[in-house]
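Table S2 (continued). Query chain:
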Amino acid sequence: MSSVLMDLDEFDLNSKEPITEPERQYYFMAKCREWVRNKEKEINRPLTFSVVTFGCQMNAKDSEKLAGILEQIGYHQIEGEEADFVVYNTCTVRENANTRVYGRLGYLNSLKRKNPNMMIALCGCMMQEDAVVDKIKKSYRFVDMIFGTHNIFKMAELMHTRIHSKTMIIDIWKDTNLIVEDLPSERKYKFKAGVNIMYGCNNFCSYCIVPYVRGRERSRNPEDIVKEVKELVADGVIEIMLLGQNVNSYGKSLEEKTTFAGLLKLLEEIEGLERIRFMTSHPKDLSDDLIEVMKNSKKICKHLHLPVQAGSTNVLKKMNRSYTKEDYLSLVDRIKTAMPDISLTTDIIIGFPGETEEDFLETLEVVEKVRYDSAYTFLYSKRSGTPASVMENQVEELVAKDRFDRLLKVVQKISSEMTARVAGNVEEVLVEEINGQDPSLMTGRLSNNILVHFKGSEEQIGKIVKVKLAECKGFYYMGELCN
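Corresponding output:
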Protein backbone atom coordinates (compact mmCIF):
# COMPACT_ATOMS: atom_id res chain seq x y z
CA MET A 1 0.00 0.00 0.00
CA SER A 2 1.74 3.14 -1.22
CA SER A 3 1.32 6.69 0.06
CA VAL A 4 2.48 9.61 -2.09
CA LEU A 5 2.60 13.21 -0.95
CA MET A 6 3.74 15.23 -4.01
CA ASP A 7 3.07 14.94 -7.73
CA LEU A 8 6.34 14.41 -9.61
CA ASP A 9 4.78 15.82 -12.80
CA GLU A 10 4.68 19.26 -11.18
CA PHE A 11 8.48 19.62 -11.24
CA ASP A 12 10.29 21.45 -14.04
CA LEU A 13 13.29 19.18 -14.60
CA ASN A 14 15.22 21.96 -16.35
CA SER A 15 15.02 24.26 -13.34
CA LYS A 16 17.51 24.38 -10.47
CA GLU A 17 16.91 21.86 -7.70
CA PRO A 18 14.98 23.12 -4.64
CA ILE A 19 16.92 23.81 -1.44
CA THR A 20 14.19 22.90 1.06
CA GLU A 21 13.21 19.37 2.07
CA PRO A 22 11.32 17.28 1.15
CA GLU A 23 10.71 19.21 -2.12
CA ARG A 24 14.35 18.68 -3.05
CA GLN A 25 13.97 14.88 -2.85
CA TYR A 26 10.80 14.86 -4.95
CA TYR A 27 12.67 16.87 -7.59
CA PHE A 28 15.40 14.20 -7.70
CA MET A 29 12.76 11.46 -7.79
CA ALA A 30 11.34 13.14 -10.89
CA LYS A 31 14.85 13.36 -12.43
CA CYS A 32 15.52 9.68 -11.69
CA ARG A 33 12.09 8.72 -13.06
CA GLU A 34 12.99 10.35 -16.37
CA TRP A 35 16.23 8.31 -16.42
CA VAL A 36 14.32 5.07 -15.60
CA ARG A 37 11.84 5.66 -18.44
CA ASN A 38 14.67 6.18 -20.92
CA LYS A 39 16.52 3.11 -19.63
CA GLU A 40 13.39 0.94 -19.95
CA LYS A 41 12.99 2.01 -23.57
CA GLU A 42 16.65 1.24 -24.19
CA ILE A 43 16.52 -2.31 -22.77
CA ASN A 44 12.87 -2.94 -23.69
CA ARG A 45 11.68 -4.17 -20.28
CA PRO A 46 10.62 -2.79 -16.87
CA LEU A 47 13.30 -2.11 -14.24
CA THR A 48 12.91 -3.96 -10.94
CA PHE A 49 14.00 -3.41 -7.35
CA SER A 50 14.33 -5.32 -4.08
CA VAL A 51 14.81 -3.94 -0.56
CA VAL A 52 16.30 -6.44 1.90
CA THR A 53 15.88 -5.48 5.55
CA PHE A 54 18.14 -6.62 8.37
CA GLY A 55 17.28 -5.78 11.98
CA CYS A 56 14.61 -3.96 13.93
CA GLN A 57 11.23 -2.36 13.27
CA MET A 58 12.89 1.03 12.84
CA ASN A 59 14.79 -0.49 9.91
CA ALA A 60 11.59 -2.04 8.56
CA LYS A 61 9.95 1.39 8.64
CA ASP A 62 12.95 2.92 6.83
CA SER A 63 12.69 0.17 4.21
CA GLU A 64 9.07 1.10 3.53
CA LYS A 65 10.30 4.62 2.70
CA LEU A 66 13.05 3.28 0.44
CA ALA A 67 10.53 1.10 -1.39
CA GLY A 68 8.14 4.03 -1.71
CA ILE A 69 10.85 6.22 -3.23
CA LEU A 70 11.91 3.52 -5.73
CA GLU A 71 8.29 2.93 -6.77
CA GLN A 72 7.85 6.66 -7.42
CA ILE A 73 11.01 6.64 -9.51
CA GLY A 74 9.43 3.91 -11.63
CA TYR A 75 11.00 0.67 -10.47
CA HIS A 76 8.78 -2.42 -9.90
CA GLN A 77 9.22 -4.34 -6.66
CA ILE A 78 10.07 -8.05 -6.77
CA GLU A 79 10.97 -10.71 -4.22
CA GLY A 80 14.58 -11.94 -4.18
CA GLU A 81 17.75 -10.18 -5.17
CA GLU A 82 17.81 -10.74 -8.94
CA ALA A 83 16.70 -7.15 -9.47
CA ASP A 84 18.06 -4.07 -11.24
CA PHE A 85 18.31 -2.10 -8.00
CA VAL A 86 19.05 -3.91 -4.73
CA VAL A 87 19.11 -2.12 -1.38
CA TYR A 88 20.50 -3.74 1.76
CA ASN A 89 19.16 -1.87 4.79
CA THR A 90 21.62 -3.15 7.37
CA CYS A 91 21.71 -3.79 11.12
CA THR A 92 24.82 -3.77 13.26
CA VAL A 93 23.53 -4.66 16.73
CA ARG A 94 25.50 -7.91 16.64
CA GLU A 95 28.82 -8.64 15.00
CA ASN A 96 27.40 -11.59 13.05
CA ALA A 97 24.90 -9.25 11.36
CA ASN A 98 27.86 -7.60 9.61
CA THR A 99 29.27 -10.99 8.62
CA ARG A 100 25.94 -11.95 7.02
CA VAL A 101 25.95 -8.81 4.88
CA TYR A 102 29.51 -9.39 3.65
CA GLY A 103 28.53 -12.95 2.72
CA ARG A 104 25.48 -11.80 0.77
CA LEU A 105 27.50 -9.14 -1.07
CA GLY A 106 29.56 -11.85 -2.74
CA TYR A 107 26.32 -13.27 -4.19
CA LEU A 108 25.23 -9.80 -5.38
CA ASN A 109 28.54 -9.39 -7.19
CA SER A 110 27.85 -12.55 -9.22
CA LEU A 111 24.39 -11.21 -10.13
CA LYS A 112 25.82 -7.83 -11.14
CA ARG A 113 28.29 -9.45 -13.53
CA LYS A 114 25.31 -10.95 -15.38
CA ASN A 115 23.23 -7.75 -15.32
CA PRO A 116 25.07 -4.59 -16.49
CA ASN A 117 22.04 -2.46 -15.47
CA MET A 118 22.18 -3.54 -11.83
CA MET A 119 22.84 -1.04 -9.03
CA ILE A 120 23.58 -1.95 -5.40
CA ALA A 121 22.95 0.37 -2.45
CA LEU A 122 23.96 -0.24 1.16
CA CYS A 123 22.42 1.81 3.95
CA GLY A 124 21.44 1.63 7.61
CA CYS A 125 23.27 1.17 10.90
CA MET A 126 26.20 -0.91 9.67
CA MET A 127 27.20 1.87 7.26
CA GLN A 128 27.70 4.29 10.17
CA GLU A 129 30.89 2.41 11.12
CA ASP A 130 34.10 3.76 9.57
CA ALA A 131 35.72 0.33 9.45
CA VAL A 132 32.78 -1.08 7.48
CA VAL A 133 32.87 1.69 4.88
CA ASP A 134 36.64 1.31 4.53
CA LYS A 135 36.24 -2.43 3.96
CA ILE A 136 33.54 -1.95 1.32
CA LYS A 137 35.60 0.69 -0.50
CA LYS A 138 38.55 -1.68 -0.56
CA SER A 139 36.99 -5.12 -1.10
CA TYR A 140 33.55 -4.51 -2.63
CA ARG A 141 34.16 -1.93 -5.34
CA PHE A 142 31.06 -3.06 -7.26
CA VAL A 143 28.76 -1.39 -4.68
CA ASP A 144 27.23 1.78 -6.15
CA MET A 145 25.93 3.73 -3.15
CA ILE A 146 26.61 3.81 0.60
CA PHE A 147 24.57 5.95 3.00
CA GLY A 148 23.71 5.71 6.69
CA THR A 149 20.82 6.06 9.10
CA HIS A 150 20.59 9.85 9.15
CA ASN A 151 20.05 10.47 5.42
CA ILE A 152 17.83 7.59 4.26
CA PHE A 153 15.56 10.29 2.82
CA LYS A 154 18.31 11.31 0.33
CA MET A 155 18.30 8.08 -1.68
CA ALA A 156 16.88 9.62 -4.89
CA GLU A 157 19.42 12.44 -4.79
CA LEU A 158 22.28 10.00 -4.23
CA MET A 159 20.99 7.79 -7.03
CA HIS A 160 20.92 10.78 -9.38
CA THR A 161 24.53 11.57 -8.45
CA ARG A 162 25.52 7.93 -9.04
CA ILE A 163 23.86 7.81 -12.48
CA HIS A 164 25.84 10.83 -13.65
CA SER A 165 29.17 10.20 -11.91
CA LYS A 166 29.70 6.46 -12.62
CA THR A 167 31.66 6.09 -9.36
CA MET A 168 30.81 4.75 -5.90
CA ILE A 169 28.82 7.36 -3.95
CA ILE A 170 29.45 7.52 -0.19
CA ASP A 171 27.38 9.90 1.93
CA ILE A 172 27.58 9.19 5.67
CA TRP A 173 26.42 11.72 8.26
CA LYS A 174 27.85 11.33 11.76
CA ASP A 175 24.83 12.96 13.37
CA THR A 176 21.99 15.30 12.50
CA ASN A 177 19.19 17.40 13.96
CA LEU A 178 17.32 17.17 10.66
CA ILE A 179 14.11 15.15 10.47
CA VAL A 180 12.67 14.69 6.97
CA GLU A 181 9.36 12.87 6.76
CA ASP A 182 6.58 13.40 4.18
CA LEU A 183 8.18 11.00 1.71
CA PRO A 184 6.55 8.17 -0.27
CA SER A 185 6.16 4.93 1.65
CA GLU A 186 5.28 1.43 0.47
CA ARG A 187 3.42 -0.14 3.40
CA LYS A 188 3.25 -3.89 3.81
CA TYR A 189 -0.28 -3.72 5.25
CA LYS A 190 -3.17 -1.41 4.30
CA PHE A 191 -4.66 -1.55 7.79
CA LYS A 192 -1.63 -1.06 10.09
CA ALA A 193 1.51 1.05 9.96
CA GLY A 194 4.60 2.06 11.89
CA VAL A 195 5.07 5.73 12.74
CA ASN A 196 8.43 7.14 13.80
CA ILE A 197 8.02 9.50 16.74
CA MET A 198 11.73 9.97 17.49
CA TYR A 199 15.18 8.98 16.34
CA GLY A 200 18.43 8.15 18.11
CA CYS A 201 19.24 7.20 21.69
CA ASN A 202 20.94 8.91 24.65
CA ASN A 203 21.24 5.89 26.96
CA PHE A 204 24.64 4.38 26.04
CA CYS A 205 24.01 0.93 27.48
CA SER A 206 27.50 -0.55 27.66
CA TYR A 207 26.70 -3.47 25.31
CA CYS A 208 24.90 -1.44 22.64
CA ILE A 209 26.18 0.21 19.45
CA VAL A 210 22.87 1.99 18.64
CA PRO A 211 23.68 5.48 20.06
CA TYR A 212 26.89 5.48 18.02
CA VAL A 213 25.14 4.63 14.74
CA ARG A 214 21.74 6.31 15.15
CA GLY A 215 22.91 9.45 16.95
CA ARG A 216 21.37 11.43 19.79
CA GLU A 217 17.67 11.51 20.60
CA ARG A 218 15.58 13.87 18.52
CA SER A 219 11.79 13.92 18.70
CA ARG A 220 9.35 14.81 15.97
CA ASN A 221 6.86 17.59 16.67
CA PRO A 222 3.57 16.21 18.02
CA GLU A 223 1.57 18.12 15.37
CA ASP A 224 3.51 16.37 12.60
CA ILE A 225 2.92 12.94 14.18
CA VAL A 226 -0.82 13.62 14.62
CA LYS A 227 -1.04 14.83 11.00
CA GLU A 228 0.70 11.67 9.73
CA VAL A 229 -1.53 9.38 11.78
CA LYS A 230 -4.69 11.17 10.57
CA GLU A 231 -3.52 10.72 6.96
CA LEU A 232 -2.84 7.03 7.60
CA VAL A 233 -6.30 6.57 9.13
CA ALA A 234 -7.86 8.31 6.11
CA ASP A 235 -5.95 5.77 3.99
CA GLY A 236 -7.46 2.78 5.82
CA VAL A 237 -5.09 2.27 8.78
CA ILE A 238 -6.75 1.23 12.04
CA GLU A 239 -3.64 0.24 14.06
CA ILE A 240 -0.41 2.16 14.47
CA MET A 241 2.91 1.19 16.05
CA LEU A 242 4.79 4.20 17.46
CA LEU A 243 8.51 3.66 16.97
CA GLY A 244 11.55 4.98 18.79
CA GLN A 245 14.67 3.59 20.43
CA ASN A 246 13.24 4.79 23.76
CA VAL A 247 9.69 6.10 23.34
CA ASN A 248 9.40 6.99 27.04
CA SER A 249 11.88 9.84 26.63
CA TYR A 250 9.87 11.31 23.73
CA GLY A 251 9.67 15.10 23.75
CA LYS A 252 12.78 15.91 25.76
CA SER A 253 14.55 17.42 22.73
CA LEU A 254 11.60 19.63 21.73
CA GLU A 255 11.53 23.37 22.45
CA GLU A 256 7.93 23.13 23.65
CA LYS A 257 8.25 20.32 26.16
CA THR A 258 5.77 17.49 25.78
CA THR A 259 5.74 13.93 27.04
CA PHE A 260 5.03 10.52 25.59
CA ALA A 261 1.90 10.32 27.75
CA GLY A 262 0.79 13.68 26.31
CA LEU A 263 1.37 12.47 22.75
CA LEU A 264 -0.69 9.32 23.40
CA LYS A 265 -3.60 11.45 24.64
CA LEU A 266 -3.55 13.41 21.36
CA LEU A 267 -3.51 10.24 19.28
CA GLU A 268 -6.30 8.68 21.34
CA GLU A 269 -8.63 11.42 20.06
CA ILE A 270 -8.18 10.55 16.37
CA GLU A 271 -11.45 9.20 15.04
CA GLY A 272 -11.16 5.92 13.14
CA LEU A 273 -7.95 4.85 14.86
CA GLU A 274 -8.71 1.63 16.73
CA ARG A 275 -5.41 0.44 18.19
CA ILE A 276 -2.18 2.08 19.36
CA ARG A 277 1.01 0.12 20.04
CA PHE A 278 4.51 1.35 20.80
CA MET A 279 8.06 0.19 21.34
CA THR A 280 10.59 0.25 22.85
CA SER A 281 10.15 1.36 26.46
CA HIS A 282 13.11 1.97 28.76
CA PRO A 283 12.21 1.26 32.41
CA LYS A 284 14.08 4.30 33.73
CA ASP A 285 11.80 6.70 31.82
CA LEU A 286 8.42 5.01 32.17
CA SER A 287 6.32 7.52 34.10
CA ASP A 288 3.29 7.15 36.34
CA ASP A 289 1.53 9.51 33.90
CA LEU A 290 2.07 6.98 31.12
CA ILE A 291 0.69 4.16 33.29
CA GLU A 292 -2.39 6.30 34.02
CA VAL A 293 -2.94 7.10 30.33
CA MET A 294 -2.61 3.41 29.39
CA LYS A 295 -4.99 2.39 32.18
CA ASN A 296 -7.72 4.78 31.01
CA SER A 297 -7.21 4.32 27.28
CA LYS A 298 -9.75 2.63 24.99
CA LYS A 299 -7.18 2.33 22.17
CA ILE A 300 -3.72 1.60 23.63
CA CYS A 301 -3.11 -2.15 23.39
CA LYS A 302 -2.80 -4.17 26.59
CA HIS A 303 0.80 -5.05 25.85
CA LEU A 304 4.00 -3.48 27.11
CA HIS A 305 7.49 -4.49 26.03
CA LEU A 306 9.72 -3.59 28.98
CA PRO A 307 13.31 -4.84 28.55
CA VAL A 308 14.89 -5.82 31.87
CA GLN A 309 18.15 -7.17 30.29
CA ALA A 310 19.28 -8.60 33.67
CA GLY A 311 17.81 -9.23 37.11
CA SER A 312 20.95 -8.39 39.07
CA THR A 313 21.58 -4.79 40.15
CA ASN A 314 25.30 -5.55 39.93
CA VAL A 315 25.00 -6.52 36.24
CA LEU A 316 22.53 -3.71 35.47
CA LYS A 317 25.09 -1.20 36.78
CA LYS A 318 27.78 -2.63 34.47
CA MET A 319 25.27 -2.46 31.62
CA ASN A 320 24.65 1.24 32.44
CA ARG A 321 20.90 0.64 32.54
CA SER A 322 20.25 3.36 35.21
CA TYR A 323 17.85 1.32 37.36
CA THR A 324 18.16 -1.38 40.01
CA LYS A 325 16.41 -4.73 40.30
CA GLU A 326 14.20 -3.18 42.99
CA ASP A 327 13.36 -0.18 40.77
CA TYR A 328 12.27 -2.52 37.99
CA LEU A 329 10.12 -4.74 40.21
CA SER A 330 8.51 -1.68 41.80
CA LEU A 331 7.66 -0.34 38.32
CA VAL A 332 6.15 -3.69 37.29
CA ASP A 333 4.09 -3.70 40.47
CA ARG A 334 2.67 -0.23 39.66
CA ILE A 335 1.89 -1.30 36.08
CA LYS A 336 0.13 -4.51 37.14
CA THR A 337 -1.80 -2.77 39.93
CA ALA A 338 -3.15 -0.29 37.37
CA MET A 339 -3.67 -2.90 34.61
CA PRO A 340 -3.99 -6.45 36.00
CA ASP A 341 -4.68 -7.84 32.51
CA ILE A 342 -1.60 -6.31 30.82
CA SER A 343 0.73 -8.54 28.83
CA LEU A 344 4.37 -7.86 29.71
CA THR A 345 7.22 -8.96 27.45
CA THR A 346 10.94 -8.36 27.84
CA ASP A 347 14.52 -8.75 26.58
CA ILE A 348 17.15 -10.62 28.62
CA ILE A 349 20.90 -10.91 28.00
CA ILE A 350 22.67 -13.92 29.51
CA GLY A 351 26.43 -14.15 29.99
CA PHE A 352 27.20 -10.42 30.27
CA PRO A 353 30.82 -9.82 31.37
CA GLY A 354 31.21 -10.43 35.11
CA GLU A 355 27.85 -12.22 35.47
CA THR A 356 28.12 -14.76 38.33
CA GLU A 357 25.87 -17.70 39.12
CA GLU A 358 24.28 -15.54 41.86
CA ASP A 359 23.61 -12.76 39.34
CA PHE A 360 22.00 -15.29 37.00
CA LEU A 361 19.79 -16.65 39.80
CA GLU A 362 18.58 -13.08 40.43
CA THR A 363 17.56 -12.86 36.76
CA LEU A 364 15.61 -16.11 37.17
CA GLU A 365 13.98 -14.65 40.27
CA VAL A 366 12.82 -11.56 38.35
CA VAL A 367 11.38 -13.74 35.57
CA GLU A 368 9.46 -15.81 38.13
CA LYS A 369 8.17 -12.71 39.96
CA VAL A 370 7.12 -10.72 36.88
CA ARG A 371 5.76 -13.72 34.91
CA TYR A 372 6.33 -12.42 31.39
CA ASP A 373 4.02 -13.43 28.56
CA SER A 374 7.15 -13.90 26.48
CA ALA A 375 10.83 -13.00 26.63
CA TYR A 376 13.41 -12.49 23.93
CA THR A 377 16.50 -14.13 25.36
CA PHE A 378 20.00 -13.53 24.00
CA LEU A 379 23.43 -14.89 24.73
CA TYR A 380 25.75 -11.92 25.20
CA SER A 381 27.95 -11.42 22.16
CA LYS A 382 30.83 -8.94 22.04
CA ARG A 383 30.11 -5.88 19.96
CA SER A 384 33.34 -4.10 19.07
CA GLY A 385 33.15 -0.37 19.70
CA THR A 386 31.15 -0.78 22.93
CA PRO A 387 32.53 -0.53 26.50
CA ALA A 388 31.35 -4.08 27.33
CA SER A 389 33.54 -5.62 24.62
CA VAL A 390 36.71 -4.76 26.59
CA MET A 391 35.37 -5.55 30.08
CA GLU A 392 37.18 -8.11 32.20
CA ASN A 393 35.65 -11.41 33.33
CA GLN A 394 34.04 -12.36 30.04
CA VAL A 395 31.80 -15.37 30.81
CA GLU A 396 32.88 -18.72 29.36
CA GLU A 397 30.73 -19.85 26.44
CA LEU A 398 29.75 -23.19 28.00
CA VAL A 399 28.73 -21.53 31.28
CA ALA A 400 26.65 -18.90 29.44
CA LYS A 401 24.99 -21.56 27.27
CA ASP A 402 24.04 -23.64 30.33
CA ARG A 403 22.46 -20.58 31.98
CA PHE A 404 20.69 -19.67 28.76
CA ASP A 405 19.11 -23.14 28.51
CA ARG A 406 18.00 -23.03 32.14
CA LEU A 407 16.45 -19.60 31.65
CA LEU A 408 14.66 -20.71 28.48
CA LYS A 409 12.91 -23.58 30.28
CA VAL A 410 11.56 -21.20 32.95
CA VAL A 411 10.55 -18.54 30.40
CA GLN A 412 8.70 -21.05 28.20
CA LYS A 413 6.82 -22.64 31.12
CA ILE A 414 5.64 -19.26 32.46
CA SER A 415 4.87 -17.96 28.96
CA SER A 416 2.64 -20.95 28.26
CA GLU A 417 0.79 -20.45 31.56
CA MET A 418 0.35 -16.71 30.97
CA THR A 419 -0.91 -17.18 27.42
CA ALA A 420 -3.50 -19.72 28.64
CA ARG A 421 -5.07 -17.34 31.15
CA VAL A 422 -7.64 -16.03 28.62
CA ALA A 423 -8.60 -19.48 27.27
CA GLY A 424 -12.34 -19.73 26.64
CA ASN A 425 -12.79 -15.95 26.43
CA VAL A 426 -14.32 -14.16 23.47
CA GLU A 427 -11.81 -11.48 22.44
CA GLU A 428 -11.37 -8.91 19.67
CA VAL A 429 -8.84 -9.94 17.02
CA LEU A 430 -7.37 -7.78 14.27
CA VAL A 431 -7.24 -10.11 11.26
CA GLU A 432 -3.83 -9.72 9.60
CA GLU A 433 -3.36 -12.38 6.93
CA ILE A 434 -4.11 -15.81 5.53
CA ASN A 435 -2.33 -18.41 7.65
CA GLY A 436 0.98 -19.44 6.09
CA GLN A 437 0.56 -23.16 6.88
CA ASP A 438 -3.17 -23.61 6.27
CA PRO A 439 -4.92 -21.32 3.74
CA SER A 440 -8.34 -22.18 5.24
CA LEU A 441 -7.29 -20.35 8.42
CA MET A 442 -6.89 -16.65 9.08
CA THR A 443 -4.26 -15.27 11.47
CA GLY A 444 -4.91 -12.29 13.68
CA ARG A 445 -3.63 -10.62 16.82
CA LEU A 446 -5.17 -9.88 20.20
CA SER A 447 -4.69 -6.52 21.89
CA ASN A 448 -2.08 -8.23 24.12
CA ASN A 449 -0.12 -9.22 20.96
CA ILE A 450 -0.87 -12.96 21.09
CA LEU A 451 -1.58 -14.63 17.73
CA VAL A 452 -4.86 -16.41 17.02
CA HIS A 453 -5.58 -18.77 14.11
CA PHE A 454 -9.21 -19.45 13.14
CA LYS A 455 -11.39 -20.45 10.21
CA GLY A 456 -12.39 -17.33 8.33
CA SER A 457 -12.22 -15.57 4.97
CA GLU A 458 -9.87 -13.20 3.18
CA GLU A 459 -12.50 -10.43 3.29
CA GLN A 460 -11.91 -10.19 7.05
CA ILE A 461 -8.28 -9.05 6.65
CA GLY A 462 -7.87 -5.61 8.19
CA LYS A 463 -11.03 -5.90 10.28
CA ILE A 464 -11.47 -6.45 14.00
CA VAL A 465 -13.64 -9.51 14.66
CA LYS A 466 -14.77 -11.38 17.77
CA VAL A 467 -13.16 -14.79 18.24
CA LYS A 468 -13.62 -17.40 20.96
CA LEU A 469 -10.21 -18.56 22.18
CA ALA A 470 -10.98 -22.27 22.04
CA GLU A 471 -7.58 -23.88 22.59
CA CYS A 472 -4.27 -22.52 23.86
CA LYS A 473 -1.30 -24.02 22.04
CA GLY A 474 1.38 -22.59 24.33
CA PHE A 475 2.26 -19.38 22.50
CA TYR A 476 -0.82 -18.92 20.32
CA TYR A 477 -4.51 -19.82 20.17
CA MET A 478 -6.78 -21.81 17.91
CA GLY A 479 -10.01 -19.83 17.85
CA GLU A 480 -13.61 -19.95 16.62
CA LEU A 481 -15.16 -16.97 14.85
CA CYS A 482 -18.23 -15.61 16.63
CA ASN A 483 -21.22 -14.55 14.52
